[in-house]
Amino acid sequence: MIRLSYWVAPIMAGVVWLATLLGLLLYWIVNEDRVHYVSMGDSQTVAYISDVGASDLKPLFIAGCVLTTVFLDLSFAADRWLRHKGRLAPYTATTERVLASLTIVFAVVGTAGLILLSIFDTMRHPKLHNVFLVLFIGGYVVSAIFICWEYQRLGMSYREHRVLRLSFYIKLAFVLIEIVLAIAFAACSFTKRYDPAAVLEWTIAFIFSAYVFSFYVDLYPAAATKPRAHAPAGQGGRREKERRARPGYAAAGEMEEGGSERTLTAGSGAPVAAGGAFGRGSRRSGLASNF
Prior knowledge:
It comes from Trichocladium antarcticum. It holds the Pfam family Frag1. Keywords: Membrane, Transmembrane, Transmembrane helix. It is a single chain. The protein has 291 residues and is mostly helical. 63% of the residues lie in helices and 1% in strands. Helix 4 (94-119) runs antiparallel to helix 5. The N and C termini lie close together (7 Å).
């Protein structure tokens, strides 16, 4: 039986965001035949996301923004909680906890910006819309900077956990690319080069979906640390034997490329006790061979 885990939150957020973007884009191209909206500039031929979102699809735009940010913020909170509980590589210093908290704070700022810009659309509230657009992009970029810093420190503490380095590089790439594109977008907007600015806006939005999906990489290892349900009396021994007989049992307990709670054997043959799931006193509650 497949049981849902924390990694579902970023998947849901990414799917909803992609569906919203594709719905808006295809509606403008196919249904509206690239119509020129009132909110577009006189010489503009490519609609902004907000131009389409201010049309008949405004309810879809608002719903998509709300659901995306709710699931994404749940991903941030889940990462913080799982590390606090030791089900992911736990924090080793107060600095990492502060960075995680700042990540969530600025993600909330980005959340507020995205939801409000969808409500105060560019056609009816252009000035407020632009303010909330800055909050959205700035909030999530700053949040990504803090989480990169956090993961860089965690990667140094847990060098054996390659997934931390992978996640760090994914998020660092997002930060660098989005900053460059955001600067180009602002420059095109201020110089009234609306078509290049619109293309850049759609590009920034689609790249944001890749950032959202990247949290799957962070949360997936926690599926191996779900507490196991207690077997009925008299069946525990038989079920444990069956579990140990399954192919790949030895690897089932590994998470984030770390060690396990089992006793390790040194090259000389002498047993060496492992210091928990992460070698740093993790409060691991149990292993799961499926989820």
